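A reminder from the course coordinator: this example appears on the midterm review sheet, so study it carefully.

Given structure:
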């Protein structure tokens, strides 16, 4: 019996040793590296900011599409709308355009919307106020189409900006006797008639734009280049350029060209 027990114990011992050898002889599994792929973000293309020669050029670029849309809907030349906007709003820098998005100086006249008060012909007059400038352009279109006194304008050719400019004053839109010339000057200086051409396409019929002698102004006491530039809607740099002036000194009686020739 003792022999049997001894033999069994030896057998168990030998078996356990073999098992340890087998386990120790197994090759170790290679360690795998976990590679985390990161998605590369696309490079953002930064568009260069447009550089404008003056506020008027920036104004035209900002509102030209709106003016053309209004032309398609209401048959008012885009050139006329833009020129009026430039003149009435001071190229978007005037108080009414900045504070009230009112680009055409349209007064309340029964208006039930938001209002702003501004000194014009009289002190503290009521003007319409809009949430966005585009509503001012739409109201300008409705202002002209809904009033009988402007009905004659819509019988004119949409490419004849000169007739429209003269017709606006004749219908009482402005009291300034030079209002038509100012509109025409802006249209020709900045080639606003090109926006009419884009809308009308093949039906566009250009009008003759002969060269003319630039308008002049005689300097009086108290005048500055800045005050004259504001009066004629022309930049100080343009005044200096067309008159060959290097500084800002003016003399009483000096004759200044206040409108560049069409070739400039």
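Designed residues:
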């Amino acid at each position: 019996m003792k022999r049997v027990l001894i033999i069994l114990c030896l057998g168990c011992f030998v078996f356990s040793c073999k098992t340890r050898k087998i386990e120790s002889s197994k090759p170790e599994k290679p360690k795998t590296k976990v590679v985390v792929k990161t998605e590369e973000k696309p490079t953002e293309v930064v568009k260069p900011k447009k550089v404008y020669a003056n506020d008027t050029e920036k104004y035209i670029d900002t509102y030209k599409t709106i003016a053309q849309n209004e032309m398609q809907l209401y048959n008012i030349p885009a050139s006329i709308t833009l020129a009026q906007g430039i003149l009435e709003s001071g190229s978007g820098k005037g108080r009414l355009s900045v504070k009230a998005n009112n680009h055409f100086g349209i007064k309340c006249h029964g208006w039930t919307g938001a209002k702003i008060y501004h000194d014009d012909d009289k002190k503290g007059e009521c003007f319409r106020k809009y949430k966005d400038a585009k509503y001012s352009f739409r109201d300008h279109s409705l202002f002209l189409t809904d009033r009988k006194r402007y009905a004659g304008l819509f019988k004119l050719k949409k490419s004849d900006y000169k007739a429209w400019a003269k017709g606006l004053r004749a219908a009482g839109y402005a009291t300034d006797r030079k209002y038509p010339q100012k509109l025409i000057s802006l249209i020709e200086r900045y080639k606003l008639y090109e926006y009419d051409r884009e809308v009308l396409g093949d039906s566009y019929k250009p009008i003759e734009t002969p060269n003319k002698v630039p308008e002049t102004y005689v300097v009086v006491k108290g005048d500055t280049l800045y005050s004259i530039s504001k009066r004629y809607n022309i930049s100080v740099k343009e005044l200096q350029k067309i008159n060959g002036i290097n500084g800002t000194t003016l003399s009483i009686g000096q004759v200044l060209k206040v409108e560049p020739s069409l070739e400039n």
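The longest helix spans residues 2-25. The chain has ten helices and four strands.
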